[in-house]
Amino acid sequence: MATVLLARQLLTPLERIDDAALVIEDGIISAIGSRDAVPLPANARTIDFGDSILTPGMIDIHIHGGAGHDVMEGSGESLTAIERLLVRHGVTSYCPTTVTAPMDETLTTLAALAKAIEDRESHGSADPHRARPLGIHLEGPFLSHARRGVHPSMFLQPASTEIFNRMWDAAEGRIRMLTIAPELEGALDLITAVSQRGVCVSIGHSNATLAQANAGIKAGACHATHTFNAMRRLDHRDPGLLGAILTDRSLTADMVVDGVHVEPVVVDLFLRAKGVDGAVLITDGISATGMPDGTYRLGSFEVEVRAGRCESHGKLAGSVLTLDLAVRNVMAFAKMSLQDSIRMATLNPARVLRIEPRKGVLRAGADADIVVCSPAGEVQRTIVGGMLQ
Q: 304: exposed, middle or buried (C-beta count within 10 Å: 0-12, 13-18, 19+)?
């Protein structure tokens, strides 16, 4: 049976449609438009959301955990807890993100994640209460020792195609993103090889000079990881990696907009530089997301969480940010509209992963991943694959 959703407004997000109707058939959007322009299927179920707004389901391309569980646990049960939390905050798709760990542990985790993702593709697609994994984001082990953040230095690896191939095989080819420092010896060859497999290569955790950053982009890097954090500082005579990120229009870049990782005025500066089409919102969320203050795990080490700040040995260690709050923070910090802010959590990450035709957008033929929200960006309901909770 077809389902028709009615709302005061719909954000595609490139377009705004008032007095909107959206038709879902077999988990796919079959039509959108104003109510007087969309033919409604006979015997369709109609749900009127009144003054609410329909947007695409959000996509978090960088998340380590939530609900007390860490991605590195690698179990279906831990992912289920994370996925249920994500749906409550409007996220319908995500990339489970690793953290640097001993190689044997990393390979074991990647194999377990690959199995869990396969199980979801085979049997879990009918659960409206869980976000769906899109593939794995490898944050590490090819990171700069100087800008490693909380990633354990003893487990960092030289940029090596052989090491990446071991991880690729363990993950059964389900790696969608790789964060890498482009200044590492061998990094340019690895960036080229990885990008040719269709993996999004993101530069980050890096002490690169401007020339080294530009070389990484020329080799195939197309994105940047948590801009301003774990990077060489911007200097007017030594712009470094940030000089490339903020000025290269071919490069998209993400940011943790929680008011902790980056000051609001710098968030505004970042968005002015990248524009609404070049910026992506992420959470970098850890197991403490959705939980009370306390001690939690990020991979193999402990993180202390107090008043929204996550630290390990005095360094920031991820966040407890949710993506819907990131959207609202952008609206507050940079005085952006809901339409522009929601784009950074939907269409833009879909384009980073090259899945735009079916994710991150409301249009005929796209997956029916939909968020019902208030004009202030507060999530009221999340629809995964056309199934209402």
A: middle
